[in-house]
Amino acid sequence: ENLRRGSEERQSQGDLSIRGDVKNGSITDSEQTIVSGNSNSESVCLSSREWDIPLDEVVLEERLGEGQFGVVYRGNWHGAVAVKMLNMETASPRRQAGIMATFEQEVANFRKTRHENLVLFMGACVKPPNLAIVTSLCKGLTLYRHLHYQTDKFNHNRIGSIARQICLGMGYLHARGILHKDLKTKNIFYENGKVVITDFGLFSVAKLCQEGRRGNYLTIPRGWLYYLAPELLKDLRPGIEHPDLSFSTRSDVYAFGTVFFELLTGTWPFQDQPPESIIYLVSKGIKPPLANLYSIVEYKDILMSCWAYQDHDRPDFTRLQSHLERLPKRKLSRSPSQPTDVTRSN
Ligand code: ADP
Ligand code: MG
């Protein structure tokens, strides 16, 4: 509805839609500024790049849900797509300008990515106060749904395959200089044995919009806390309303550790504890007890290395991936009644 309304407004205001420059047969990144609006109303400056998708070309279908970034729709744009709508209506004009700049920067990163374990970026719509990102539609379920709703139990080989594909996608992102900042099972789709990671590098713009919606107060969604490395949790001390979280490649590795823990156990670390306790325990370097976790030693070692307290002690994704690849495949998954290769660690 909003999109359609937006496009009608755009046309009635005599908007232009200009694509990037074409030089030497290829489209360049150069930015063009379009000034739209009636002569008697204030003008809105829009910048158009090669990845712009005119809003009126996107047909919105079902509402898929709402997350940090805004509302997500299933849509159609030359095939099935996911449309992430970001609404910054409530933000002041100055704040909107800040959000726009962050959005453009994060989208510029997003569009650099081409990897089979990463969601395909297709384009973006920029029509303040609406911003939208269009990606391929992931058809499978998220790992979150598999593990926490369907309570699916994956065997060791499958866990290894999923973990390896996550490491491949993440290793690629880091090699391109992009931090995910929001790696969690809700952002990992799994279909027919294939992993697709979504929502990389959009954290800053999502956070800015959250702040706008929640009266400048950063709240910590519980599902987010489990993935935060100790060095990030330290930035969340009470009284600091706009923590500048110091994300790094190694904080992404810590988040992967939590994803791996979920794959192994079907739960989150310290799931039954209140948020304050989780913040306290993780900041002190205390790990959840693994006494009842039946898994191969190698997986426990991987988990512990990703959760290392000091960020420089955590491996990078390339190393993790090659380590996972070298582990021998098992004919059968071990059950608790056959704990021959199982360790019970603290
Ligand atoms: P979160 O990641 O916290 O679930 P999002 O805003 O990313 O929040 O997603 C909202 C909903 O849209 C979720 O149900 C998510 O699974 C779904 N979704 C997001 N991106 C895609 C996509 N590319 N394909 C299919 N569904 C998606
Ligand atoms: Mg998401």
Kindly describe this structure.
The protein contains eleven helices and twelve strands. The protein has 346 residues and is of the alpha+beta class. The longest helix has 20 residues, at 156-175. The strands form four sheets. A five-stranded antiparallel sheet has the order 5-6-7-9-8, with helices on both faces. Strands 10-11-12 form a three-stranded antiparallel sheet. The structure holds adenosine-5'-diphosphate and magnesium ion (MG). Magnesium ion binds next to loops.
Short overview:
The protein has 346 residues and is of the alpha+beta class. The chain is built from eleven helices and twelve strands.
Number of helices: 11
**What general form does the structure show?**
globular
DSSP strand tally: 12
Fraction of residues in β-strands:
15-25%
Q: Write down the overall mean pLDDT.
A: 79
Low-confidence stretches: 1-47, 335-346
Q: What's the N-to-C terminus distance?
A: 54 Å
Strand order of the largest sheet: 5-6-7-9-8
Oligomer: single chain
Order of helices and strands: HEEEEEEEHEEEHHEEHHHHHHH
Calculate Rg over CA atoms: 22 Å
Largest sheet: 5 strands, antiparallel
Cofactors, ions and other ligands in the entry: adenosine-5'-diphosphate, magnesium ion
Sheet/helix structural class? alpha+beta
Residue share in helix: 25-40%
Can you tag this structure with a few keywords?
binds adenosine-5'-diphosphate; 12 strands; three-stranded antiparallel beta sheet; disordered N terminus; 346 residues; disordered C terminus; binds magnesium ion; five-stranded antiparallel beta sheet; 17% strand; alpha+beta
